[in-house]
Every structure is written in structure tokens, then in C-alpha cells.
């Protein structure tokens, strides 16, 4: 059971989350001659944990239904439990608002590996700015090379890296598609053609 205040934050956050949900993304970042690539998958199931909540549902159909009800701003207070206190969930909500939409905010946020910091045990890569971080990690016991959103924190990206990189390019595809077929962002025109030979198989 969650409070009306937490439910309101979920209602607002899911609108941001759902804009990217159902797709995989290939993101290039770094500097000239030092390119890095990561692949993300944004699925409905990752939303709740990102906001410090969990679903009180056992079936996949029930989980999908609760997600859609939340997206439609219905009362789902009896379907969700909070695993953090209100203040912590509010911080995650603010981080979501500030940095989760890495396409719309691509010019404002940076990206880096979480190394030599406490967060390296929580997630592999972080995106963010001076007001928030979204951490991405690999699923446990899963050989997939797709990262998923795991953590939302109200802290500066400089807390996990002194020299985060900028996003250079974002490609997308629907989750069940084989090839990336949409350019979502380029830091400069036609950079995709420059990077294509560096993209890993």
C-alpha cells in the first residue's frame, strides 16, 4: 500500500518513463578516437524499482495491467508497496524528472562508468547532470549485453566521475526488432556515419 503522495509521483514519473519504454537504445559516448558504446533496454518491469517501489502482483498480466492503470493516473495504491521512505522516493522522483529522458536531455546530461566509487557496486554506467543520476546495470545471471535502468539518485554525476563524457549519438529500435533503424540524437549532423564503423557487433 502506498500513500497518495507517492502515487502522485508515480503517476508523473511513469509519463516520462513510458516515452522511452518498449525500445532498446544504442548510445555512443566519449571523445574523438575514444568512443564507447552501450545498449539499454527500457521495459515496464524496471519502472517500479527505479522509483523505490515494488508491485504486489504475481502474474505478468496483472503487472501489465497495473502499469497501464498507473499510466492512466488511476488509483493503484493497493497494488504497489514502497520499499523506501517518502523522502527517498521523492529524491528518486526528482532524479527521474531531471535526467531520465536521455533523448530529450541528451545535450544537458553526461555519461560515465561507475568506477572507483561506492556506486560501482550498484550499477555499471550512470547518466546525469549536476542534479541527478540514473544508474544502469546488467541483469543478474543474464548473458545479455543490454543494460537496464536500476537506480535513480538525487546527486551530481561528478560524485561518480570527475570527467564524464558527453552523449554523441543515440539509435533506437523496438525491443523485438533485430536492427537499430532510428536516429534519435546526433551531437552534430551526420556523426552517425562517422561512428558506424566503430559500432561493435
What order do the helices and strands come in, and which of them pair?
Elements: H1 4-18, E1 23-31, E2 34-42, H2 47-50, E3 53-55, H3 60-71, E4 80-82, H4 86-99, E5 110-113, E6 125-128, E7 133-137, E8 146-153, E9 165-174, E10 182-186, H5 191-195
Parallel strand pairs: 2-8
Antiparallel strand pairs: 1-2, 1-9, 3-4, 5-6, 5-9, 6-7, 7-8, 9-10
Helix pairs in contact: 1-4
Care to describe what's here?
This protein has 201 residues and is α+β, with helices and mostly antiparallel strands. Helices cover 25% and strands 30% of the residues. It has a seven-stranded mixed barrel with strand order 1-2-8-7-6-5-9. Strands 3-4 form a two-stranded antiparallel ribbon. A hairpin with a 4-residue loop joins β6 (125-128) and β7 (133-137). α1 packs parallel to α4 (86-99). The chain is globular. The termini are far apart. The relative contact order is 0.19.
Summarize the structure.
This protein is α+β, with helices and mostly antiparallel strands. Helix content is 25%, strand content 30%.
Biggest sheet character: 7 strands, mixed, barrel
> Beta-sheet strand percentage?
25-35%
Unreliable residue stretches? none
- Gyration radius, rounded: 17 Å
Q: Kindly report how far apart the N and C termini lie.
A: 45 Å
Tally of separate helices? 5
**Structural class by SSE content:** alpha+beta
Mean pLDDT: 91
What are the key terms here?
single chain, 201 residues, alpha+beta, seven-stranded mixed beta barrel, two-stranded antiparallel sheet, 10 strands, globular
